[in-house]
Amino acid sequence: MKKLLKLKFSLFILIIGLSACMNNYPPIPKEKAYHSIKYPPKSYQNYINIDCPYTFEYPVYANINNEVLFFNDKPSDPCWANIEFDQFKAKLHLSYKAIESKEDVEKVFNDTRELTWKHTVKAQFIDEHAIEKPNNVSGMYYAVGGNAASSIQFFLTDSSQHFLRASLYFNTRPNRDSLNEVIEFLETDVMHFIETFQWK
User: Fold this and answer.
1) From the CB of residue 90, how many other CB atoms can be counted at a distance below 10 Å?
2) What is this structure's pTM?
3) What class has domain 44-199?
4) Which residue among 42, 49, 135, 162 sits deepest, i.e. has the most Cβ atoms within 10 Å of its Cβ?
């Protein structure tokens, strides 16, 4: 009798154990997560091109590419360049234009504003901040919110001879949630670029 009770009890425990392993609960999906990124320490170097009328500092973990194309054609001025952040698949596009007349000034200002506000389709907001620096450097900084193609844009000018426009792009589909941390990291570099920028 005791042996039969022990056998029944063991069988009961075995059935409970097996039924616990075979539950019918639906699987719980894993939460979305983004890759962990290792950020390099901040350090900068000078950029001086004897053919271009400006200088600035850029990060040691970035490269300058002067062999840029504009819609598969050479740009109108040889001082166009890209600051390339290969680790982040990002580029800060720099386009320079020499100003020769009052009409040129109006055109580059209007073109820049129009290019920036084209992003309103995807942008949640566009904040404008005036740039005023010594050595005749002024301009406008645009912080573009949401899933716009370019989240940071700005221009610098002396209002008489020189005009430089810049915009940050990623070689990936715009997703502010996944890119926000990288954008904030690169924004520091953009601010350093502006702070150290000078006309020759």
Assistant:
1) 23
2) 0.75
3) alpha beta
4) 162
Give me the phi and psi of 104, to 5 degrees please: -60, -45
pLDDT along the chain (200 residues), means of 10: 59 59 58 70 95 96 84 73 95 92 78 68 78 93 85 92 94 80 95 96
User: E strands, 11-136, where?
Assistant: 44-48, 54-59, 63-65, 81-85, 90-98, 123-133
Query: Residues 89, 172: contact at Cβ < 8 Å?
Result: yes
The residues pairing with 165 across neighbouring beta strands, listed in sequence order, are 95, 155
Cα 79 to Cα 66, 97, 171, distances in angstroms? 7, 8, 22
SS3 call for 77:
coil
Give the Å distances, CA to CA, from 143 to 1, 42, 103, 107, 129: 83, 22, 27, 22, 8
Q: CB burial class (10 A; 0-12, 13-18, 19+) of residue 116?
A: buried
In the block, tokens 């070689």 appear at 171
Judge contact between 116 and 127, C-beta under 8 A.
Answer: no
